[in-house]
């Protein structure tokens, strides 16, 4: 019976790892650790060294194709090899489905490559995105897209907490850090927030990348990743040609060079009267005839001082997908409780408790003060 080269390689690998396991479980674990570490590039090993030195909070801000998720997958396996009974490792994504799409295939590949199921009895539960090791350690993929999910680690003895695509969770980062801290404290667990720069060069994620809250920044780009199938510069040059980008394009700077730059194209939409206005049968501007208090109202706030402090009220038809702006106002150089009083007036006028605020664009002080004063 003729065997393919792939079959022969798999069989040789199986025999090698079986022999290592026969020499003892610690010999096997040590060999797997060494083999995984040997696959990391220089920038990735810097994270491993920093963890060994006792650094616990990391802001890992990279470009696309820099090897970030590959590092996180290998770090998960390395941690699970050394993790004991009822200790936990968490990987956070926007949803369980997205998290599995980002990391699960990488983890399965590593478990299969190093024969961890056959030789250590690790169990993979694909439907829930979980791994249970021979020592009773646990790995979880968790979705984080609502305030209620920030407490997912409470009650666990956590040793590693990873957030991937951190730029997507700006409004949940501060409460998540507060909730996770106690779970990591018992064993001096590690917290890694990984992602690319956000659209706005401000906020919690950028603060972490600049050393806030005890975070240490690490970052590199596709240009630093020798494991990428193609040279990094070749990839970037192709993107520039295909997208028609110049060197100062904010998406190029953010996604491929890992730089924090303002991207105003992501912050506003052009108003076109014919597209964005409501008109009656005579063509005059106005609200829909059936608009009334029964529509669902949301107050949106964009804080500012030298720039205008703006409020917009959006109304949603409860019986269709129609949305209209029913009120807008703006003020400059407000001080003290003036923004809070204006917000209170608008909320009462439209009978709503649905208020959203641009927390990242200088609005943290207003946001925290408003919530402290008026609760929910």
Fold and architecture overview:
This protein is an alpha/beta fold. It is 39% helix and 18% strand. It contains 13 helices and 12 strands. It has helices at residues 5-22, 25-38, 42-52, 68-81, 96-113, 116-120, 170-185, 204-209, 232-243, 250-255, 273-276, 338-350, 364-374; strands spanning 57-61, 87-93, 123-125, 130-132, 138-143, 157-163, 190-195, 216-218, 296-302, 309-316, 323-331, 355-357. The protein has an 8-stranded mixed β-sheet with strand order 3-4-5-2-6-7-1-8. Strands 11-10-9-12 form a 4-stranded mixed β-sheet, with helices on one face. The longest helix has 18 residues, at 5-22. The protein is elongated and about 85 Å long.
What is the SS-derived class?
alpha/beta
SS strand fraction = 15-25%
Taking the alpha carbons of the first and last residues, their distance comes to 71 Å
> Unreliable segments (pLDDT under 50, ≥5 consecutive)?
none
H/E series: HHHEHEHHEEEEHEHEHHHEEEHEH
The quaternary organization reads as: single chain
Largest sheet: 8 strands, mixed
- Helix content estimate: 25-40%
Total helices: the number is 13
Radius of gyration: 26 Å
Total strand segments: 12
Mean residue pLDDT:
89
The strands making up the biggest β-sheet line up spatially as: 3-4-5-2-6-7-1-8
Described by the principal axes of the CA atoms, the overall outline is elongated
